[in-house]
Structure formats: structure tokens, C-alpha cells
């Protein structure tokens, strides 16, 4: 089977290269010799894209691939790919460059990739719990599966039997059920009308009945994603991967979602270490207006009950302000001045930027400049970043042009002026500063009873038996738990050297928590860069609610929306109460009168 699939892959590749994409390859050959490196890269990318044939199954990651995985390991993952001696053998020697990888989750294969084939499970592209029948129904496929006496076929020789076995031969011990009479009559009718002469004919009919509707549904599903600018079977191995691509396709070009550069890799490592979840608390209690009381029997009876569906927060969270543009890092040891950080990169005295030496950067810039001048025909003015910064400072015309054409949220800091802990906290409280703050924070003694039911500061720490109370310590000793410290998520009244997003830190300040020390500020430009994605998902889900024929559209966009927030902690890290200067709220001085200076 594997050899035959590779033959199909090779034939498909040659057809794609020589017919469907013939014009593309001819165009690549017309590019200038000066751009030979870029031409080769484009050609290689296209060849890799065309050379790998998707092989798709339904629940195959759990069943089919597990059955034949020993063959896969030997045939596709361990043995070397034969050298391509000519185009007639594999189309192009570049096909050897395809990556081999296996993505496995528990006992399921999400994907197996070889230079020629890519095995996928379609259940990773649909909502959890969708059966095969529901999948076909969702894409309005009328043809259904047939019936076959699985357990009756105990050897290959059985396939040569010339008569249809009795109904009890279709019994399934897996389902503990017999084939209904009407279904057996249907199989008997097909046997007669199709002129079947052996059980082998019935097996072929059954397999065709199994694959034809699947192909029809799969084609419709791929066509849907094509309308979103996505190649479902090539761009990802599951729906979260497709969502990620679509998420950035819908992001306005004016926004630049902030990733972490090589020069800030220490920040990346620190954030990874400090990733925490949140509390998952399920209350199974009966509440009633006018009867349920707050704070015990002596408390006041509630006057209203409000319920929230947490799933509804996904799209809300991802449509909030996100970190965009490159961050500006300000450290306490440099009095929170960004100028000192930027100077290390200015005027050519840098040795390494983004993994490239200054000489490499200079050569790349020279190539781009030559292209712009000779090919595009535009005037190019070059200068170092520090020169540009100095020019902006003394030229109001440039400053005004930037404000009009490149609007950004103004930084509350001046590059050169030193900052204090209180000035930083005030700007966070007033909503001027957006980003991350590494600090020491605590709940004051006067508020600890207020937060006693749920400590507000979450962190991961190593917990030993010495850190827990006597009752739980006895329980742990009895059941031989906590023999060694275990890293655990806890709620606490204290956070030391902890990174907090400014919206969350603002909430802490509004609720009376105290920041003892600030070590670093990472400032971003806030922008609702994924608002468009949230709007598209919401609109299509509404269309599905209004029009039953658009149900699959609604379900698919629901899946995309949930997949975009598959890590809600990361997304909600930057989501505060949604308030800015427009909210009616007390000032920082009102909340903290003793610290107003």
C-alpha cells in the first residue's frame, strides 16, 4: 500500500509540475540572474509544496495508522529516500528535501510527514465528538456507508465465497447488535442488482460506499477553507494551525503583532517560566433570589443572580488590545530609561542583531537599496537609526507627518528622563502604560480577610509537606504523597519578581494591592489587531443561527473562534476591565492618597 501511495504521489507531482503549475515554473526561469538565490528559494518552496501528497482518513490517527505503524517506521521514517537519478523517477531531486516528522498525542497520530506523503486525520479538523455520520450530514452528503460482515471474514479465502452469508453473519460483538432486517434486505438487493459473484465484490462495493461520501464531504470542506485563503490539507495538521494562519490573514497590515526578538530571548525564557493558569472552580449549589445569603446565614440576601458562559469570553478576549510593535524594555538599574537600551544598537556599533552580524545586515541593506534604485526607480535616503532619532527631535514637520500617517499610542515616558516607581504605577493606573512589569507585589494585611476566599496572586512554586497545614500533611503522609517537592499552581498574597500584564496590575492597584518594587518595564503599543477576526467569526455564527442552511458555516467558525483562544490564559493576559480614560473611576490619588507624591 505504501509503495502504491508513493507511485500516486510521484504521478500527481509530475502532473502538477508539468501542467497545472507550468506557467509558474516558466515565470521563475525568466527572473534575472542577479536574483538567482531568490528564484531558487521560490522554486524549492513550490516543489516541496507540490511533491507531498495528503493521505486523509477519518479517525485514522487512532485506528488505521496504529495498525500499520510498524511498517511506517521502517518504510518512511527510518530508511533513507533513494537518490533521484532522473526526473522520470521522482520529478526532481529537490523532493528529497521534504521533512519527516511524526506528531503524536497520547495514543493518536495527528500527522505523519514524509518527503512524498502527509498522513492526516480529518477528525483534527472538525469539532470534537463529531461522528462520521454527522460529518457527512454537516456537508449535506446523501450517500451513506454500506454494511459488511466484518467478523464473518476470518480468512482471505472467505472472500471467494459465492453467496451472501445469512443475516446473523453481520452480527457485531463490538456493538453487541445484529444487522436490522431492512438493512440486510438492502444488502441482498444490491447483491442481486449489481450481479455480485463473491464476497470480494461485496467488499469492493462496501469500500467504495465508505470512501465516495467521504471524498465528497472532504472536497466541500476544503473548498470552504479555500474561500478563507487557506489550503486545509497543506497549511496545517489540525484546525488550530489553520486558525493561526487565518488569524494573521485578517489582521490589518498597519498592525505588527509583537513577537520576541533574539536580542530579548532572556525575556522569552522568563515569561515561559512564569506562565500560570487560573482557578477552575465549579460550584454545585442552589441559589435563589431573596433567599441565598452572602457571607453566611447572618449576611444580606442577594437581590439578583447573574450567570456567565465562559466560552463567550473567548472572542471577547482575543478582540481586546494586544501587544504590537517591538517592545521597549526599561530596567531599574538604568533608571527605566529606554535611551540607554537603544544606544547599544545605534550607529553601527552592534556586533549581532537578530542572529546576524553587522556586516551581514549591511550587505542585505545594500542589496535592497540597489533593487529599489535600479528596479523600482525610487530615490533612497539612508541613515542610521540614531541619526533618524536626532532628526525627528529637531524637525516638527517630520513629527507631525508621523502623527498623521503612522499614529501610535504615545509612551508616557521620555527616553532620556528617569522614572520612579510611583510615576510608573500612576501611568499604569491611568491607562497610559501598556505592557509587562516585573515587580514585587503583595496584599496588605488590612485586605487579607477580604481576599481570604480566593487569594488573587497566582504563581507556580515548589510545594513540600512543610508548606501545607497539619491536616493535609497527615493526609499526604498517610497516602505517601509529597515525598519530594512538587511544582504546583497556588493562589497567594505575595508575588516576588513576578511578571504582570499592566491591565491585571491595574486591577490589583484598583483593589488595594501594594507594589513594593519594580525591576523592569516592557512597553508595547496596544492595538485591537484581532478585532477583525472576532467580528468575522461572530457574524458568521449569527448567520448560522438565522439560516439553518448555513449551520455548517456557523459550526466551522465556532471551531475557528474556540481554536484561536485555545490558550485563553495567554490571550487574557493583556485583557483588563476594558476601561481607559472614558470610564468613570476614582483617580490613582483617590485610591492611594498616602502615595500621591
TrEMBL record:
<keyword id="KW-0238">DNA-binding</keyword>
<comment type="similarity">
    <text>Belongs to the DNA polymerase type-B family.</text>
</comment>
<feature type="domain" description="DNA-directed DNA polymerase family B mitochondria/virus">
    <location>
        <begin position="130"/>
        <end position="337"/>
    </location>
</feature>
<dbReference type="GO" id="GO:0000166">
    <property type="term" value="F:nucleotide binding"/>
</dbReference>
<keyword id="KW-0808">Transferase</keyword>
<dbReference type="GO" id="GO:0003887">
    <property type="term" value="F:DNA-directed DNA polymerase activity"/>
</dbReference>
<protein>
    <recommendedName>
        <fullName>DNA-directed DNA polymerase</fullName>
        <ecNumber>2.7.7.7</ecNumber>
    </recommendedName>
</protein>
<keyword id="KW-0548">Nucleotidyltransferase</keyword>
<dbReference type="GO" id="GO:0003677">
    <property type="term" value="F:DNA binding"/>
</dbReference>
<dbReference type="Pfam" id="PF03175">
    <property type="entry name" value="DNA_pol_B_2"/>
</dbReference>
<dbReference type="InterPro" id="IPR004868">
    <property type="entry name" value="DNA-dir_DNA_pol_B_mt/vir"/>
</dbReference>
<keyword id="KW-0235">DNA replication</keyword>
<dbReference type="GO" id="GO:0006260">
    <property type="term" value="P:DNA replication"/>
</dbReference>
<keyword id="KW-0239">DNA-directed DNA polymerase</keyword>
Amino acid at each position: 500500500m505504501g509503495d502504491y501511495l508513493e507511485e500516486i504521489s510521484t504521478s500527481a507531482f509530475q502532473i502538477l509540475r508539468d501542467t497545472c503549475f507550468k506557467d509558474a515554473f516558466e515565470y521563475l526561469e525568466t527572473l534575472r540572474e542577479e536574483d538567482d538565490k531568490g528564484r531558487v528559494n521560490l522554486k524549492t518552496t513550490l516543489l516541496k509544496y507540490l511533491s507531498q501528497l495528503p493521505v486523509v482518513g477519518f479517525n485514522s490517527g487512532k485506528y488505521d495508522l496504529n495498525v500499520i505503524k510498524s511498517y511506517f517506521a521502517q518504510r518512511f521514517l527510518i530508511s533513507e529516500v533513494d537518490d533521484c537519478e532522473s526526473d522520470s523517477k521522482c520529478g526532481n531531486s529537490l523532493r528529497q528535501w521534504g521533512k519527516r516528522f511524526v506528531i503524536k498525542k497520547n495514543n493518536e497520530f495527528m500527522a505523519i510527514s514524509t518527503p512524498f506523503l502527509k498522513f492526516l486525520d480529518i477528525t483534527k479538523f472538525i469539532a470534537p465528538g463529531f461522528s462520521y455520520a454527522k460529518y457527512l450530514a454537516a456537508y449535506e452528503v446523501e450517500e451513506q456507508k454500506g454494511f459488511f460482515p466484518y467478523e464473518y471474514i476470518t480468512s482471505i479465502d472467505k472472500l471467494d465465497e459465492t453467496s451472501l452469508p445469512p443475516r446473523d453473519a453481520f452480527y457485531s460483538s463490538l456493538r453487541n447488535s445484529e444487522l436490522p432486517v431492512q438493512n440486510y434486505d438492502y444488502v441482498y438487493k444490491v447483491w442481486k442488482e449489481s450481479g455480485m459473484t463473491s464476497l470480494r465484490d461485496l467488499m469492493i462495493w462496501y469500500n467504495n460506499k465508505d470512501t465516495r461520501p467521504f471524498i465528497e464531504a472532504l472536497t466541500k470542506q476544503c473548498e470552504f477553507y479555500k474561500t478563507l485563503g487557506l489550503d486545509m490539507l497543506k497549511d496545517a495538521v489540525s484546525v488550530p494551525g489553520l486558525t493561526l494562519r487565518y488569524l494573521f490573514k485578517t489582521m490589518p497590515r498597519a498592525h505588527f503583532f509583537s513577537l520576541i526578538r533574539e536580542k530579548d530571548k532572556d525575556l522569552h525564557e522568563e515569561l515561559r517560566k512564569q506562565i500560570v493558569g487560573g482557578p477552575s472552580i465549579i460550584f454545585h449549589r442552589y441559589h435563589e433570589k431573596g433567599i441565598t445569603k452572602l457571607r453566611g446565614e447572618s449576611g444580606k440576601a442577594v437581590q439578583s443572580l447573574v450567570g456567565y458562559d465562559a466560552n463567550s469570553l473567548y472572542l471577547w478576549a482575543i478582540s481586546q488590545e494586544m501587544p504590537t510593535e517591538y517592545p521597549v524594555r526599561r530596567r531599574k538599574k538604568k533608571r527605566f530609561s529606554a535611551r540607554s537600551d537603544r544606544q547599544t544598537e545605534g550607529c553601527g556599533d552592534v556586533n549581532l542583531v537578530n542572529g546576524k552580524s553587522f556586516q551581514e545586515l549591511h550587505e542585505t541593506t545594500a542589496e535592497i537599496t540597489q533593487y529599489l534604485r535600479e528596479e523600482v526607480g525610487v530615490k533612497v535616503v539612508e541613515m542610521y537609526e540614531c541619526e533618524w532619532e536626532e532628526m525627528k527631535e529637531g524637525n516638527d514637520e517630520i513629527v507631525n507627518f508621523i502623527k498623521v500617517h503612522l499614529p501610535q499610542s504615545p509612551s508616557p515616558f521620555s527616553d532620556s528622563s528617569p522614572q520612579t516607581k510611583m510615576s510608573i504605577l500612576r501611568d499604569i493606573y491611568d491607562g497610559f502604560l501598556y505592557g509587562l512589569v516585573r515587580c514585587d507585589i503583595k496584599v496588605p494585611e488590612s485586605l487579607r480577610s477580604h481576599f481570604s476566599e480566593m487569594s488573587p496572586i497566582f504563581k507556580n512554586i515548589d510545594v513540600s509537606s512543610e508548606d501545607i497545614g497539619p491536616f493535609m500533611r497527615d493526609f499526604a503522609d498517610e497516602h505517601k504523597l509529597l515525598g519530594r517537592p512538587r511544582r504546583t499552581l497556588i493562589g497567594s498574597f505575595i508575588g516576588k519578581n513576578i511578571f504582570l500584564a499592566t491591565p491585571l496590575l491595574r486591577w490589583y492597584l484598583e483593589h488595594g494591592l501594594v507594589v513594593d518594587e519594580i525591576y523592569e518595564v516592557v512597553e508595547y503599543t496596544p492595538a485591537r489587531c484581532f478585532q477583525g477576526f472576532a467580528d468575522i467569526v461572530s457574524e458568521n455564527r449569527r448567520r448560522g443561527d438565522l439560516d439553518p442552511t448555513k449551520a455548517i458555516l456557523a459550526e466551522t467558525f465556532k471551531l475557528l473562534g474556540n481554536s484561536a483562544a485555545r490558550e485563553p490564559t495567554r490571550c487574557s493576559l493583556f485583557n483588563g476591565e476594558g476601561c481607559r480614560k472614558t470610564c468613570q473611576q476614582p483617580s490613582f490619588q483617590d485610591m492611594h492618597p498616602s502615595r500621591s507624591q
